[in-house]
């Protein structure tokens, strides 16, 4: 502004009321200006001189700091370069062919001295030396130091390469020390190379003059620029005469009174010194307000107290008459004025009204945001309705009621009958709300009520004043009077609709001192209802799917374990927090009193996981009927999973069987051997009869469906009374702990020799799963039993048909010892047929074994892999009826294959064999 008002001094008019002459003489003006220039010459106390000195000091400091930084950086760079060159030279010499061999020789000095000198000259280093393992120099670029000992090379003798700043004999230097190793990695010597610190100093001395020269040039340029700036500042403050000062005052005064902001200046004694036009209008000041005390101006208690106290304020809202003013106050003392206070005012009355509306809108947006976060957190229909009521009270309404259709509450699809609903949630901030409680049936049968109208229109209905409205009383006049007496006076009712279907009704009520609903509240209520309807529909559909999944899973999991004598079994299944999943287990009796134990896991939850689990469990049962070894069974299961993915359409989301694992184990109570194969599944835990826990190392194959390589099996020999613990990963792994920690906890929980399988299951559940797990858990604990030795009999049979009668006689004697005379005929017939077929069609060796348990098992094995099959013999055939007779007299029979032979077995009831009807048997044989 100073530059704008500069003009010719000869044309400047004096200010009004000036008693001086309008045209002073040229000589007087010259003397005045000369005196002014003399007063403004730069001196120690002038602003320009102080600014100049301050800038010069700052420049000096910056130049000094920059020069120091450059020197330090140059020294650091030189030292880093020296370390790198020394390290490269030392490593090259240490790893050079022949260095290690020369150090192992009897006199390494002649072999290494020339190479050491060449390395020092080629790398432009100050010294290079080769040391033996005793730290003695055997070669050195300075021959007079050969034979002397080096210091501080112990780290290199230990095999470590390092660089350091060596302080000691013969001189201070930057060096690199590298061990020399032979082919076996043993340290046979050390190479050290380096540059003296004095050499680095000479290199640095060459750079310092250039840095100093640059710094001097920068200082000179900066000082010159600062001088020019200071001269410019002096020139801009010279030449102001009274006319120009008067013009500036007039302009400032015009701005002060024309601005749309009130300004007051109050003296230290509390009297008004200045008030602009806007301040007089806003505060309604009297014409004689100047020099009066602020307490006499009727400004209001709050504003008066603020001005009298002299407090500093920023945008403090104070009422003044019928206005709201935003007040800012500052003291004048820090700005070279007389002690006092400057206050400015802005009229914020309309702004406050807009701010109030904005605050209401912000509150509504916050309510909708909280509704999106808080409604629908549990996937439970009733709880979701309660969350809707909790969110709306008291921020939107004083009382909220929610009614839902019966079908929605039961998880079914809603029907078209929407005039009968069940009250599901009531929440109110008013005491003794006279509305129907939760659980009562609500009917919307009167067409004129707001609820029925909302259902008919499919949108919200507003009743701003219930006292004046008559239609809502038609259904229940007495209940309406109770509602009005309780203070409720306004209503918004909204149908809960999702996917175009009505699920229920929500009503928002206001009472007491709360203002009635307005049109703006309807949009908020409809948005709350829409969000709640989606959440309720999701919860309904989830409840339906969850119920279906639970029903399906219960039908697919074993309802009870089969009877068998080989294992004492206990089990647990615990679904995850989010619902049913794909974990399963099974206990499958096999021929020969063997038992198969199965534990599997399909990753995921819901119907897809449950259905996949059922398919895998059914496949395992079917494959087990073939009596396959564990690794072959998993191979067939893996192939089946691959076919399921292909036939099920791999492009459909959720159709792939991903992450399915399985463990299949067969326990033989005769030998105590347990064969285990696992496809991506965690290994079982074994507890011996003394209570010692072992984690066996068993082969691990990829999960099911991966394919590409055969499965492997491992064998465990279990003592009688051992416990085999099979489980899924949900038992030992969750978000709070990893699987290793879970396995340690499991081992501690199952340790001990006096626990039954049931007690073991209980201890594991209490220790590892005190709450609801985040993943499904399947647990199977089996305690082993061994078949008594006197219940097992075996014979090696010569490969001769004449041996059949002898073996048959021995078998008869053993059956008589077991007091199974009722089974002699059937066992003799079955044994004769099976043994004769083995000798006639099989291969040696032939072996017969009898097992006595719940049933009597007769096994005949031979060395061939050809399985007999029953056929329908005609009347002219001489053979073909043997297996038919076996099937008639045995409870069950079949074939299983081993690694080098096959076994044909038949089971008989030891309590007596039910012999077939002779007439029917002869008729069958006749064909």
Automatic annotation (TrEMBL):
Keywords carried by this UniProt record: Cell membrane, Hydrolase, Membrane, Transmembrane, Transmembrane helix
Give every GAF domain span: 380-546
Q: Where in the cell is it found?
A: Cell membrane
Record's compositionally biased regions (Basic residues): 29-40
Domain PPM-type phosphatase, by residue range, is 564-784
Major subcellular location class: membrane
Question: Mind telling me which InterPro entries this protein's record contains?
Answer: Bact_Sigma-Reg, GAF, GAF-like_dom_sf, HATPase_C_sf, HATPase_dom, PPM-type-like_dom_sf, PPM-type_phosphatase-like_dom, sCache_3
Q: Where are the transmembrane segments?
A: 47-72
What's the protein called, per UniProt?
SpoIIE family protein phosphatase
In its UniProt entry, the species of origin is given as: Streptomyces thermoviolaceus subsp. thermoviolaceus
